Amino acid sequence: MDLASFYSSEIFTLVIIPLLIFLARICDVTLDTARIIYVSRGMKLLATLIGFFGVLIWLVSITQIIQNLTNIIYYFAYAGGFAMGNYIGIYVEERMAIGTVIIRIITQKDATNLVEHLKEEGYGVTYIDAKGSMGPVKVVFSIIKRKDIDQVLKIIRKFNPLSFYTVEDVRSFREGVFRKKPKKPFIPKIKRKHKSKENSQEKD
Fold first, then answer.
1. Could you tell me which of 69, 39, 71, 66 has the C-alpha nearest to residue 54?
2. Domain boundaries, given as residue ranges, for the chain
3. What does each of the 204 residues of the chain score in pLDDT, given as a tens digit?
């Protein structure tokens, strides 16, 4: 079977092209979902680049639909790719965890241990006394990287499990205290090498 006859075969028109449309639509919507999220967070350059490649893929897939308007399989492939692309786009964005959020904690209990532990972990913390509908409360604010959300929530559940908290996106900020990545300890490894050399010299 030559290339021309393969392109005109039923396998190509009924299986391969719908599959390509499905995959292209997944990529297109995944990128577009991420683009909308990044636009809402003020990441202009990243949103622009994603939008360029997203619309390019969309043009390829919609061209095949227009050329084969009578084939209902293409419609299902297009719609299925759109649905799956939304799910994958949100999942990928959550895994990438790009951006900054503010965690607002409201608790009726003493928040001293919670605040001190957050400080020890390297997070910036602001806390004030306030009054809620059920009496005096402590309000704790912390602006963190999105990748640190799970870690901070674990600390909250440990020290104030019944506290009320919200997590909101932050479009922009200036300065502040953020957790730094711990550096790998190179010195202990070097010391071990020196000790091993000294031991070998003593044996000699």
1. 39
2. 3-96, 100-170
3. 566 676 667 777 778 888 888 988 898 888 888 888 778 777 788 889 888 988 888 888 788 777 777 778 888 988 898 899 888 888 877 777 677 888 999 998 888 899 899 888 888 898 899 988 888 999 999 988 888 888 899 999 998 888 899 998 877 666 666 666 655 544 454 445 444 555 555 555
CATH 1.10.3720.10 for domain 100-170: no
Q: What is the DSSP letter of 160?
A: -
pTM > 0.90: no
Residue 73's contacts (CB-CB under 8 Å, 6 or more residues apart) are 14, 18
Distance CA 55, CA 141 (A): 39
Edge-first strand order for the sheet with 135-145 is: 126-132, 135-145, 100-107, 164-170
Torsion angle of the four alpha carbons 9, 11, 16, 17, in this order, in degrees rounded to the nearest 10: 50
CA–CA gap between residue 117 and residue 177 (Å, rounded): 15
Say which residue the tokens 């680049």 belong to.
Answer: 49
